[in-house]
Amino acid sequence: MRVREKGDRGVVQSVVLFLGVSVLSGALAAGLAIPFAGLAGFTTEKTSDTLQDLPQQFDEVPLKQKSTILAADGTVIATLAEQNRVPVKLKDVAPIMQKAIVAIEDDRFYEHGALDAKGTLRALLQNQSSGSVQQGGSSITQQYVKISLVEKAKTPAEVAAATADTYQRKVAELRYAVAVEKQYSKNEILEKYLNLANFGDGAWGIQAAAQHYFSVNASQLTLPQAAMLAGLVKNPTGYDPTNNAKRAKDRRDVVIRRMLELNVISVAQANSALKTPVIDPNKVRPNKLGCGNGPYPFYCEYVVAELEDNPAFGKTKTERANYIKTAGLTIRTSLDPKIQADAQRSIDTHSKPTDQAIAAITIVEPGTGLVKAMAQSRGYGSKRGQTAYNYNAPKTYPGGYGGFQNGSTMKAFTIAAAIQKGIPLNYKINSPSPLDMGGMKYSTCDGPRKIPDGYSPKNSTTNVADPTMIEAAQKSTNTYFLQLSLRVGLCPIAKLAGSLGMYNAQNLKPLEQVASMTLGVDYVTPLQLSNAYAAFAARGMYCTPWLITSVKDSANKSVSVPGANCKQVLAPEVADGVNAVLHQVMEPNGTGGKLKFGKSDLAGKTGTINDAKAVWYAGYSTKLAAAATVADASVPYTKLQNQTLNGKRINDPSGSGTAGPIWEAAMKAALQGYPTTRFVAPTDKTQRGDVKSLPFVNGMNPEDAANKLRQAGFEVAIASGTVNSEETAGTVAYTDPRQRDGAPAGSLVTIYVSNGSKQVKPGKPTTTQTVQPPGSPTTINPNCPPWNPKYPNCGGRGHR
After folding, report:
1. In 290-394, which residue ranges form alpha helices assigned H by DSSP?
2. Which of 227, 642, 659, 671 could form a disulfide with 255 if both were Cys (CB 3.0 to 4.6 A apart)?
3. Where are the beta strands (DSSP E) in 84-235?
């Protein structure tokens, strides 16, 4: 104990001697100017007491290391860093670099302890005589301590305290330096210093500096290169050769001459080095930090946003953001560079950055949720044809645009909910255009509602009068799906869509339940829609979008991050039914028929919103799913017609003709190399549905018929007006669905009242003579309709 106290007293005496010389000379010794008044009454004994109050051990500051984001194949997407630093061992630093930094900053580094009083006084006199700071006053150990304390500072006040020109700060710094000298060897201190020091222009640490200025590793540095870097640490901004090459050369030459003076190098070496250009601009490697400087900036920013939301990286978002930039993480993502290139090539082929309209597409993998690609027509930036928005992402972070209304792509969720309820694929609904729906009632999760008067939607395509679900999907028949959604109920559709990741991408709330929900509601993104459709491809297995597949720290240890998050949301049989319906959309009679390619089964759906302000195509195979959109993304939003896309005016915007080709080209290229795949055929029960027989009510009083249907377990509505029929005027002409087709229990049955216009006049025959095939029944059984596949053994003629 007495030996240590004696040593401490010696240090204290050195401090007081040094401080006294500094004050009496009235000069700055590398920032160590001490006001004379500050030393009044500051005795050796008081200094000793102050030192004894300081910690006896110096807690090493963790190096701020850059983090790297990688694609699925290991290629670099971006480098995140507060300080661009790559730590290296001293053995990996060229010996000439070690000699250069010691020569100019602390030439007696290996000879003295924490404080070099002799060297400090010599530097003081040298700097005073030259009129500028030529040599450092602090030892390398002291400089390391000072930089470390600044690195530890978390607030501006803490930074100010760590750099204040006060004797208290210098005394504390010295005491820490003493602790450092006890904890580490000289070589360890030099290594820490070289890795911690700022070398200007965004380069921190000797390895990053060597790579940045000279495109070499620290182990390969030459004499003139080492001298330039050694000179930088005194003033990283002032001596930055990329800003002021002359000033940098002057400073470098000071270092070379000092090395010659100390006999570290020969005269010949010095002369050769002095003649060498300070830097070769062609060798300077830009510090491309951040997502904006990477090849996939929008995808990268979405990844960073997800990292910053992960509690594993800190308690607050600020803490997490700092950790991500300084912890030296290696972040591997789901992005597939090949598929990303396919998607971007399709975007670039069908659109231009300067178009009025924007184009975007996301591709995901069914069954995993891996986001393989995100591409869009406008690049990253603030110039014309650029944007800071990711048009594929929800508004969960500042860069997420928040989507567009998705039009008839919503019909897929109505189809799924209908199949889930037991409605058959051949379910027919009379679907006129226009259809007066004013006054109709519909159910939501919050109770029944009524459609306002005057709502008369139209069909945008020509279809048969009574289409099946498949036929209606093929032609995207609006009035069919509006009626189907009312019969299914909007609550089941909303819940099913929500379970597949569909929500308002602007405000992150559930989709609104309005009568026109099946035609597109609220705002959704290509990411959401492609991922939801991927669940159909995966036979009902929904997986949340998965971008970050692994994270490892600087020690190559895994950091806990969410993995695949998959859940069976739909019964496989229901998804198979959806696939069967949407597969027909891509057959010759469907709106997506021209987009079919290859041998694998494909399914898809078009989407166009009101005034065609956005058009969509979403589709999938069992291997990949994608959603493409072309939309107006500039306020005030206007129709796409006459806007430019690919430099040309859009004449007739549609999901199949405008967004479809983007989807087709991207998916065709992306699926190359994948095996041929097929959808699982729907079961007989899925195709036929879970229907029960409808009682025969044709010709009955409408109210009596309604009661009979209610007693059978159906909801009933009586349509306004009358229809042409052979039944007596004022009686039931027919029901929708028809008695021959049956209907799922609890579904809505609409009664249509006859006007008697086709009623047979008296005196005319009411039946015609027919020849029955051998073995056919001669009687009519209204409860055994032959058209209903649920009753394959029935015969005879049914009724309308």
Report:
1. 297-308, 317-326, 337-350
2. 227
3. 84-85, 203-204
Q: Which residues fall within 8 angstroms of residue 538, CB to CB, at 6 or more apart?
A: 366, 367, 575, 622
Q: Using CA atoms in the order 532, 534, 537, 541, what is the torsion angle rounded to 10 degrees? A: -70
Using CA atoms, how far apart are residues 101 and 193, in angstroms rounded to an integer? 10
DSSP class of residue 658 equals I
Give dist(CA 548, CA 571) in Å, integer: 28
- The tally of CA atoms less than 13 A away on the side-chain side of residue 758 is 10
Q: What share of the chain is helix, strand, coil (3-state, %, to 5)?
A: 40, 15, 45
Token pair recorded at residue 380: 């990253």
| CA gap 473, 618 in Å, rounded | 13
3-class secondary-structure state, position 10: helix
Residues 6 or more apart whose Cβ sits within 8 Å of residue 45: none
pLDDT at residue 738 in the model: 85
157: CATH: 1.10.3810
| Bridge partners, 718 (sequence order) | 751
| 675 CB burial (10 A radius; 0-12, 13-18, 19+) | exposed
Contacts of 39 (CB under 8 A, 6+ apart): 19, 20, 23, 167
- Alpha-helical (H) ranges within 634-675 are 660-670
Please list the residues that pair with 625 across neighbouring strands. 364, 620
Residue where a domain stops, chosen among 150, 173, 196: 196
Helix, strand or coil, per DSSP, at residue 795: coil
Q: H or E segment at 2?
A: helix 2-25
Q: Is residue 263 left, alpha or beta, with left meaning phi > 0 and alpha meaning psi from -120 to 50?
A: left
The token pair that represents 132 in the structure block? 């500028």
Question: Does any domain span residue 710?
Answer: yes
DSSP SS3 for 135:
coil
Any domain includes 648:
no
Which among 9, 32, 16 has a CA at the least distance from the CA of 178?
9
CB neighbourhood size of 772 (10 A) = 10
Give the pTM.
Answer: 0.77
Span 33-57, pLDDT tens digits: 333 333 333 444 444 455 555 556 7
Are 515 and 437 a contacting pair, CB within 8 Å? yes
* CB contact at 8 A, 88 and 195: yes
Residue 99 CA to residue 149 CA, distance in Å, equals: 25
Rounded Cα gap, residues 481 and 133, in angstroms: 82
Last residue of a domain, one of 196, 215, 233: 196
pLDDT in tens, 524-559: 999 999 999 999 999 999 999 999 999 999 889 999
Q: Residue 265 and residue 795: Cα distance in Å, rounded? A: 109
Non-local CB neighbours of 769 within 8 Å, separated by 6+ positions: none
Task: Give the range of the structural domain holding residue 757, as residue numbers without chain letter.
Answer: 692-800
> Residue 735: inside a domain, yes or no?
yes
Whichever domain contains 702, its CATH number is: 3.30.10.20
**439 token code pair:** 């006054």
Show the beta-strand stretches assigned E in 107-207.
203-204
Phi, psi of 67 (to 5 degrees): -105, 150
Q: What CA–CA distance (Å, rounded) separates 29 from 138? A: 8
127 in a domain, yes or no? yes
The total of structural domains in the chain comes to: 2
d(C-alpha 593, C-alpha 583), whole Å: 10
pLDDT digits (tens, 9 = 90+) for 615-665: 999 999 999 999 999 999 998 899 999 999 999 999 999 999 999 999 999
Q: Which residues are 370's β-sheet partners?
A: 546
Cα–Cα nearest to 335, from 545, 623, 524: 545
Distance of alpha carbon 77 from alpha carbon 333, whole angstroms: 9
Distance CA 195, CA 215 (A): 17
Are 150 and 64 contacting, i.e. CB atoms less than 8 angstroms apart? Answer: no
